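Hi X.,

You mentioned you wanted examples for the new student's onboarding notes, showing what a folding record looks like when two proteins sit in one file. Here is a clean example. The first protein comes first, with its sequence line followed by its structure tokens.
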Amino acid sequence: QVQLEESGGGLVQAGGSLRLSCAASGRTSSNYAMGWFRQAPGKEREFVAAITSSGATTVYADSVKGRFTISRGNAKNTVYLQISSLEPEDTAVYYCAVDTRFPNLRVRLRDQDRYTDWGQGTQVTVSS
């Protein structure tokens, strides 16, 4: 089992930026795909962005494309989500997730069912 810890959330004004981090631990291998999801109040959790273990493939939700960037740290057990041009609609709890089974599979990166472990989330609040 992988333990995930998200950080970097907070309160920011519309148009501002944040960088979310997710650090994974608990496995000797850090070979896994990683994704970010979010859940706004009263809504279902939705896909935001994902990256394969090699970093060769990244995918984004249409609503964040061009504003959010997912990347892996030099230590492959870390993933970042750079979020800019924030909008009030981006307010949500952001969750990090990993897929330990198929680290470089390029399909179904948007599917929550693909991911095997989840973090507790970090709150992002965007004020207008």
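Then the second protein repeats the pattern, sequence line and then tokens:
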Amino acid sequence: QVQLVESGGGLVQAGGSLRLSCAASGRTFSGYAMGWFRQAAGKEREFVVAISWSGGSTYYADSVKSRFTISRDNAKNTVYLQMNSLKPEDTAVYYCAASRTITAQAMGVMLGRDKDDDYWGQGTQVTVSS
């Protein structure tokens, strides 16, 4: 089992920045692709960004490219999401996710399946005011 706990959400004005963290516990962190997803009120959950277990490969949704940056520190079992130039449309609950059975490039498929070895955090609210 892997437990994921997100932190760092909050209220920020448009154009501002936030840094989300996701701390993993319960099992070795290496070998897991990690990602961030988000769900706005009344909308479906969507893929935001993913990072390979080595940290060498990252994949971004077009809507956040050049504004968001994912990174990970395997020594601390933590993945980060630096969000800059935030927009009101970035308002959502942000979820951390982990899987050893799919690559970072394919992490979007987690949205369409329910597997015991896919892990999700409880989410952290990000609100961007205009």
